[in-house]
Design a protein that fits this description.
rod-shaped, histidine kinase, membrane
Length: about 425
Amino acid sequence: MTTDAAPQPGSPGGRALRIAGTVLAAVIWQGPRPDARWPYPRSRRLIRWLTVVFVGYGLIVAVSAAGAIFNDDNRMVGGIAFLMLLPFVAALWLANRRPMDAWRLMAVWVVVVPFLVGPPVPTVPVLEVWEWLFVIPVVLMAAWAGPAPVSLGVGILTALLLGVVTFLTPWPVDAGLLWVSVLVVGVVVMVGMAFGARWDARRALEAERLRVAEAQAERGALAERARIAREMHDVVAHHMSMIAVRCETAPYRLGELPENARTELAEVAAAAREALGEMQNLLGVLRSSEGGERAPQPGVDELETLLSDARAAGADVTWELDPGGPVAAPLGLTVYRVVQQGLANAAQHAGGAPVRVSLSRSGSRLVVTVANGPGTAPDVPGSGQGLRGMRERVEVHGGTLDTAPTDDGGYLLRAELPIGGRP
């Protein structure tokens, strides 16, 4: 009977090995990903100041160690020792921006330094005091910066590094104090993890504050929309209703009227009723965060009625409508609104001018044009909101809207809309 001692992929041992491998890979080489919590907005100025403080601190330690410890005939010339300690200063320079890279540089140099200098006179623990002055800040920042598994990995690998240095250093080392060094590393890592957890809590609190502020802003916007809806109803609905009522009752109040006058008044009343109905739907949109009433919206099929009503109202309108097949309701509504706004613009800025409307299919796009000649009535200045609204509607579908004067003094509006929606 044979047994396979290797942990299976789905077993707890296999999962533990995968987690350990992921943590070690992140600690040894994390790649191009940022490895710190430092994007917290309020910390950027602090980071800049910490860089200055860390570099200054590292230079002070390097100069002190080079002058007081290494300036000895048995070890190394002080000036050369200072140059040898610069990689530790570089690690401190990286510590608050790329803490994991700083830890890697520090770890490599801790192993290399004993082979470059002579032995200290007394027997020392695993690391000398000047080495701890470099190692502790770098390990603290690395444990602070990463997530909990990476911070634990930093602590474990630093402890293993101390063991390697203990047995590889070319001079005698007091191995009995290894456990004290490991304990110091453990305390530093735990402090760093505590700082990191507090930092994460602050970021989560800030994110929650932003979410609450956005929710309050949205509630305020809904309240403002409801207020606008009430104002529109009070200001506009009453007058639109009065227009419709007066037009409908005019034949009874004014006695005999010519047939064309009766027809004109009936059409004005119908237009007022239609405008009132559309405004009621708009009020529903303003009052609701999820949209207005689900009433049918006009589309391509209603263009004929729109143009006929404009002609009946006295506009010189001609049209050619050939959508080349069925058109989706959202796209049809945009086509309808573009033509409607084009007619309104022509009536406002070129009163009395002939208007030509066309709708055709060109490949996978619908092409809508509204062209008018030079007007005979005075131009009425506009606010530009109509063109802006049309452009926004067209761009929602991934289309384009072009507007330009024509050679004969008129104006051309041309919209192209992808039939399948945004490309």
